[in-house]
Design brief:
Blueprint lengths: L1 E6 L5 H6 L6 E4 L2 E6 L2 E8 L2 E6 L4 H7 L7 H8 L4 H9 L10 H9 L6 H15 L2 E4 L2 E4 L4 H4 L4 H6 L6 H13 L10 H8 L7 H12 L9 H10 L7 H12 L3 H17 L7
Antiparallel strand pairs: 1-5, 2-3, 3-4, 4-5, 6-7
Helix pairs in contact: 4-14, 5-9, 5-11, 10-11, 12-14
């Protein structure tokens, strides 16, 4: 095992993990266990620092995964400079949230399960799929299951995923798995953001909001701006918004915030959910 320490000012694991961009993590021993693909790490606080503990071979992976090479101070400054007090408040409340660099394939299936769903249930369904089809591994004396690759997911049909409780999303999981078993989601990284969005929209069950979630959380396209229930509420209350359709709202925010949009989206999502819901898990 290897350990690395990071400044806690712009790295808050609790808010980063709970803000709906990742679903495979759990609180453990005063810290957090985080899983990505076949890998695992542990985060915890020590002496005012955030400690990342993982296998030595995974250190570079998780450094990139948590976006630890990026300075988030200019991002917060951009949010505060927009002239909208609520955005500055949201950035202050969400200080420490980082946009993760996740495995895009895992993100595709995770957000297919997110539709009309709430975070605890999304996590439960992903856990069932991993337990059924993933490989069992050990980390720090505890066992966990890897996230199955598309080739493995494609070996099962819609009925299998329906039996796990995926409901109408089962056909989307099975259909997307067949496509991604033939194609490589990593290859999509070479596409421009409009091309990426177009490609994602061709996957079964992927609409505009899910495509934006995958673009932001799976490919770190920070100009993507997913609009969900919480962001729409913030738009109507703090921006005096009158646009009816979420695709139009997303375009409005993308134009307003540009390359910082995805970061500010997370601040607004976190701020609005905490303000209205006191941190309780709810619809993603």
């Amino acid at each position: 095992m290897t350990e690395s320490e990071f400044d806690a000012k712009y790295f808050d694991p609790a808010s980063t993990l709970s803000c709906g961009q990742i679903f495979r993590w759990e609180e453990a021993e005063g810290g957090w266990l985080v899983f990505s693909g076949a890998r695992a790490c542990r985060l915890f606080c020590r002496g005012g620092k955030i400690v990342l503990r993982c296998e030595g071979a995974d250190a570079a992976y998780f450094y990139n995964f948590f976006d630890l090479g990026r300075d988030y101070a200019p991002i917060e400054a951009r949010a505060c400079a927009c002239g909208i007090p609520a955005v500055a408040q949201a950035a202050a409340a969400g200080r420490g949230i980082r946009i993760l660099n996740q495995d895009p394939e895992e993100v595709v299936f995770s957000f297919l399960l997110s539709q009309n769903n709430h975070i605890p249930r999304i996590r439960m369904l992903i856990g069932r799929i991993c337990a059924a089809l993933g490989e069992e591994r050990r980390f720090g004396g505890e066992s966990y299951h890897t996230f199955p690759r598309a080739e493995v997911l494609a070996e099962r049909g819609e009925d299998f995923y329906a039996a796990l409780g995926c409901g109408y999303r089962a056909k989307y999981i099975a259909g997307a798995a067949r496509i991604l078993a033939r194609e490589n989601a990593e290859d999509y990284r070479t596409l421009s953001t409009p091309q990426l969005r177009e490609k994602l929209l061709k996957l079964p069950g992927v609409g505009p909001k899910v495509a934006d979630c995958i673009a932001l959380f799976g490919y770190h396209r920070a100009e993507a701006f997913p609009v969900d229930t919480w962001v729409e509420k913030a738009y109507r209350e703090f921006f005096g918004g009158t646009l009816k359709y979420r695709t139009k709202i997303a375009a409005y925010f993308a134009d307003l915030f540009g390359e910082y949009g995805g970061y500010i989206q997370q601040y607004l999502f976190y701020f609005e959910r905490e303000r209205r819901n006191h941190g309780k898990d709810n619809d993603r």
